[in-house]
Amino acid sequence: MSIFGDFFKKEAPLLGLQGSGGGLGFLAGRGGARGTLSGSGGAVYTQGDYKLHVFTFPNSDSFVVTDATPNATVEIFMVASGGSGAPDQGNGGGGGGIVWTNNGGIVISDGTYPITISGASQNHAPGPGNPINARGGDTVFGPSGGITLRAKGGGFGGYFSPNIDKGLDYRTGGCGGGMGNIPGANLPAPDVIGGNGYQPTQPQTFPSATNVLGNTATVLSQGFAGGASNINATSNSSGSGGGGGGAGEVGYGGLPPFPAPTRGRGGDGYQVPSSFLDPFKPVIPNPFLNIGHTDPAFRYFGGGGGGSDHNNNAGTGRNFGVPGGLGGGGRGAIDPGPGTRHGEVGLNDRGGGGGGGSTHSGNGRSGGSGCCIIKYRFQ
Fold it and tell me: Residue 93 in contact with residue 84, Cβ under 8 Å?
């Protein structure tokens, strides 16, 4: 398996929402049923026959469904909050894991569905140890009406420590944090990898009923591992800390064979299909959830934070740190260099991982808060 091929393979967006009116939503189901409902909760936007409900922190709320027809179907997208970047030649925090009803949505009935949105993870996260608040928090839909969906918070970026085997678990999360740098060490491969992304193992509960498209409902639950560090990163001018994993791909390692321009970069987040958000651009705010409509990252969520860089990564021109992944990943610090010694926060409402801080008293920054977006036909 090539480290630059299958290893970085992203989930291809499933464009199962194409229909009349510029791809605004669901096709008529089998037998011509419209599959409509009335809903309330969150910020609500209307375009044509469809509504979009957006839930963000701290406005956790309930999604209340009334007048649902037998095959009323909702599309639900959720991202958890990202993990914090680590201080002192630290690594990027993992992006929030994502949950997406990717086969045309799931059937829903009348009822009240609680929605819990996770806030930002801890800023200036300490280390070493197991700083639980430096992990991102979860975003949850339900439990109610046979539906419980959970997006897991991103992992903490690894910390500069020769005792990295103590508390390995703090790097795990919906998307894993990067690996901590270990000066002069020569550890075996299992000790230099990033944290695991365990979002895919998180159970999701939802009705198996055929949705309005005539499809069997499925739910994508996705998050990737963080990148490894360069084990001599504090003395190796071509090294970086590992990037946090994203919801769309793994974080980039801070050492060869990764090419210098990408070392320590946060993994990109998950890109939702254009048919989910783009038709609502005329009515939603710009920027939407902190990213502008024309920005290439507009449809990305859960980007990993960048690892901190040493000596501008041997002159690769990244003058203000290591980039985070698309979807709100915070930039990592430079050590030394013309940029800041501190990492950059992950974007709120996008679940971006925080960037790692430098060895010159640099701080890692917090991961961004999560969100939940629901779309359905109301008439």
Answer: yes
In the block, which residue shows the tokens 């050492």?
255
Helices (H), the chain: 20-23, 274-277, 312-315
CA–chain centroid gap for 310, Å, is: 26
- Per the model's pLDDT, the better-predicted residue between 188 and 305 turns out to be 305
Helix (H, G, I), strand (E, B) or coil at 63: strand
Q: How far is Cα 255 from Cα 235, in angstroms, rounded to an integer?
A: 12
Q: Where are the domains of the chain?
A: 1-379
Interior/surface letters 111-143, b for 16+ CB within 10 angstroms, e for the rest = bebebbbbbbbbbebebbeebeebbbbbbbbbe
Please state the pTM of the whole predicted model: 0.86
81 has pLDDT over 80: yes
- Give the pLDDT of residue 160: 55
Distances (CA, A) of 84 to 276, 305, 324: 29, 8, 12
Average predicted confidence (pLDDT) for the chain: 81
Q: Where residue 44 falls among pLDDT bands split at 50, 70, 90?
A: very high
Strands 334-335 and 309-310: parallel
In the three-class reduction of DSSP (H, G, I as helix; E, B as strand; rest coil), residue 99 is classed as: strand
Residue 216 neighbours by CB under 8 Å, 6+ apart: 103, 208, 210
Give me 178's structure tokens.
């990067």
What is the rounded distance in angstroms from the CA atom of residue 270 to the CA atom of residue 13? 9
Which candidate, 171, 190, 11, 212, places its Cα nearest to that of 83?
171
| pLDDT winner (highest mean) among 127-141, 223-237, 362-376 | 362-376
